[in-house]
Amino acid sequence: EKPKKLLPRPPIVTVMGHVDHGKTTLLDYIRKTNVTAREFGGITQHIGASVVEHNGKKIVFLDTPGHEAFTSMRARGAQVTDIVVLIVAADDGVMPQTIEALNHAKAANTPIIVAINKIDKPSAKPDRVKQQLADLGLIPEEWGGDTIMVEISAKTGLNVDQLLEMILLVAEMNELVADYEATPQGVVIEAELDKGKGPVANVIVQQGTLRRGDILLFETTWGRVRAMMDHLGRNVDEVTPSLPAKILGLEDVPQAGERFIKVDDERAAREAVEQYMEKKRQQEMQAVKRTSLEELFEQMEKGEKPVVRMILKSDVQGTLEAIKSSLMRLAVEEVGIEVVHEGVGRITESDVMLADASNAIIIGFNVRPDGNAKKLAEQKGIQIRLYRTIYDVIDDVKAAVEGMLA
Ligand code: GTP
Ligand code: NA
Ligand code: MG
């Protein structure tokens, strides 16, 4: 085995805090761009990563929509964030989502720096914020504690330099390093299907140096890196640890939080993905069989014909119709299929509630659940199955129906 060559790597920072406390404005100021104005309704809708330089040192920022993304990544075992900047508006003070964010950061054992924002406002009460935070166990350094707190204005830029210095200081204290020559690996922060480019994944490299042409194994997909872009959209040939990259060339769209590693050959990658997907499918099938069987017995007792219920969501009306008519053809004498609801668009909380109430599974074709829907489905144990080909939907439902008859 090669000896490890550990070198410093840039810190990866997540800014968290209550709605409208200034996360995006802070990142805008730091990046000297203007993302807030471009965002629909001023609400952050995606996870973006950006890289800024301060005193010649890089800092990577993840602009998360609240702490949900942070936690869903952690739930998948991907610990991406090195430092949390907890932003609290000095006029508003500690709010419910401030506490939630704090708890998430604590649970992840991530160092926290507090940015007390909107200090330019006449109504700002920074000492009140410090007291509120102290009550939650974050004691400011100036009061003898060990939490770094910086009073800033994301709007005017006051003390933002100082905040960046503190980030670099904490990074140094935590000795963030990586092996630049290790087998490249990292994590997906967001991914999408681009009409022209195909699957596009925004990733962060955690170890090694990712190069164009590398064969990468994700959990649900794989691919050979056809092209890579850095955070400014420039084509690059390699990406070093902590840095984000947009990568093209994957077979399918991976989920946020999926990890990847470079492998030597395509066949091994394809087989590993097939095995993973097969295992997942088996688990899902078992779950369907279980809940459906219970229901089946109930229905038989009542002298009813058992029915597999489903909610169908798709990106376009046309495929919805096609899936529905193919599914109906699968209904057999012994087992019926009932579509309790169908619609175009993302899977929402209301779909999950309906599925819960009607004991249905949710089938998404080229659509995904939104954050709330996903959370609720997990809580309620509602199955959401996502597909990209009609063939797979039909195949899966057919197998489930056959499973019920077996
Ligand atoms: P979400 O993404 O919706 O959770 O909000 P956010 O935390 O990203 O807040 P955002 O940056 O969108 O700021 C909310 C509002 O506060 C905007 O109108 C900003 O202009 C304003 N704001 C942010 N920072 C400051 C500041 O330092 N001073 C003042 N006066 N206003 C600020
Ligand atoms: Na906002
Ligand atoms: Mg925002």
UniProtKB/TrEMBL annotation:
Entry protein name: Translation initiation factor IF-2
Q: Which GO molecular function annotation, any one, does this entry have?
A: GTPase activity
According to its UniProt entry, this protein's organism is: Acetomicrobium mobile (strain ATCC BAA-54 / DSM 13181 / JCM 12221 / NGA)
Main location group: cytoplasm
Keyword list (alphabetical) reads: Cytoplasm, GTP-binding, Initiation factor, Nucleotide-binding, Protein biosynthesis
Q: Name the domain of life this protein comes from.
A: Bacteria
- Annotated region described as G-domain, given as residue ranges: 11-159
Which residues does the UniProt record annotate as the domain Tr-type G? 8-177
Please state where this protein is localized: Cytoplasm
Q: Which residues of the full protein are shown?
A: 153 to 558 of 664
Residues engaged in binding GTP: 17-24, 63-67, 117-120
